[in-house]
Predict the structure of von Willebrand factor type A domain-containing protein.
Amino acid sequence: MVTVSGRHRMRSHLRGAGAAAVATALVAVVAGSWFGYRQLAGPNCSGRIELSVATAPEIAPAVRAAADQWVSDGAAVGGTCIAVNVSSSEPVEVAAAVASKHGATLAGVGQASGTAVTPDVWVPDSSTWLVRLKSGGASAFAPTNGASIARSPVVVALPEPVASRIGWPDKELRWSDLLTQVTASKPLRAGIVEPTQDAAGLSGLLSLTAAASSTGEAGSPKAQEAMVGALRALATNRSSLRQDLLARFPRSSDPTAIANGLGAAALSEEDVIAYNSTKPPIRLAALYLEPAPIPLDYPFAVLPGIEPTKASAARVLFEVLRTPGFKDRLASQALRAPDGNWGQGFQAPTGAPSPANGGASQVPPSGQGGAADLDPGAISTATTTWSVATQSGRMLCVIDVSGSMKKPVATANGASREQVTVAAASQGLGLFDDSWSIGLWTFSTNLQGSQDWSELVGIKPLSSNRGSLQRGLASIKPSNGNTGLYDTVLAAYQKVQQDWEPGKVNSIVLFTDGKNEDDDGISQKALLDRLNKLKDDEQPVQVIIIGIGTEVNRAELESITKVTGGGAFVTTDPSKIGEIFLRAIALRPPAPR
């Protein structure tokens, strides 16, 4: 029988085999051991507090059983009884709630549901969630602890007949081999759970894009072409629900069913074990590709701002979840201990590595790792690049050509601000598929008579417009004018709104290196008043402004984007425009959860 958890993963009813956790106490923790709790705590308590713990669905049964045992043995801290409420919560849902609370922006995550509440302790499936929140702008988000309590390697799951054809289980396979398979003329049908919403999908995406980048010099057209090809191959069979993706694997041994079914997907080892335990017609093989992808590491994150008594209780609960007995509880859920070893009852897939047999690359023996070992820049680039390359939109790109754009950029080998801006826009153009509609304007002051802007290319589908845009970008040169920001923003907004297209994100992306300097144009107050009147919630136009250098006024830019929706991004180093551009494009209006 197949059951579906809160993450919509397919799960089997695996029988629990964990030993009961020993009761604990804070006094004993301070002393370095918590085993003397039952002798220290009496049956009476002076009060009662409830510690709320939100965990990824697959580990929730193990955490709940250990916590229940602790509570039944008389959990207390400083004379106060502890109750523990363990909830099965989608990591993406908790991440959305935490992001909303701390003012962070996570590409592809969307808004928190109205009922979402941040817990005292969060055990997501991966430390990548903690890294994304921090790098997404949650400067006050600093959970204590964060050490791993479990582990599940990320694998590539293939139907066993398909895996056998490419050498499993005898041949050592690499991510470059998978890249060759999914981008071939007769490609392997690969799929993915949305990597902006799923940690295993993100881990697989990072590994596959790294393999694509190695096909040429970093940032070269060849490397970008390989990366975009891999992203679009995955996007063809992407799913927002893991249950839906798993259902696409062949459900019959008929050769036609195998040929037409899903051929590969990045999943966790636990997913493969749970899927195969349902005795499907075609079992899944778990391929442990090299270089090893980021595993799911289940950090125990005590969120900031909780009261001291709860923080003390959380420290003791963490110790409970690091006992040998908890390893057996994890095994009953097809999960490993943090060091990569497993408890009694764990059914390892064929070819599964372990520290005992030399598979330390997949499961670091230290069991530490966590957020400190992850690269925030690589994660941010992967999520934003995915969002850009796999979404569809309608965009007007507006580039400043005022005289100050002639200034050289010290960090770009002396190239001018104009040149690095055009280069970033040109490189970004390669990520958009033909379903996008894009136009190109430039602006300064009095660029066409008294008009501050000039249309180089109208907004049309890239299927017929890509060459015109490339030629338009190549033709851009700085003028001798000033920055006619306000008149240009108003005209661009009216233009995009005029031909608003349903089913797409309609947006303006404007690059500028200065403040409004058009004394003869519209005032800031008049601009904001006009935008407020033009704004239509049924037909939103998102305005994204990328400020370059030290002369921009962030408050001026944000006054515009607060009215229109979108965002203002400012970089004092113009050579960073490329990565800022990707982040900006990925900032699409999220649907409410």
Observations:
- Confidence is low (pLDDT under 50) at residues 1-42, 357-369.
- The CA atoms of residues 461 and 553 lie 33 Å apart.
- The two ends are 29 Å apart (CA to CA).
- The first helix runs from residue 26 to 30.
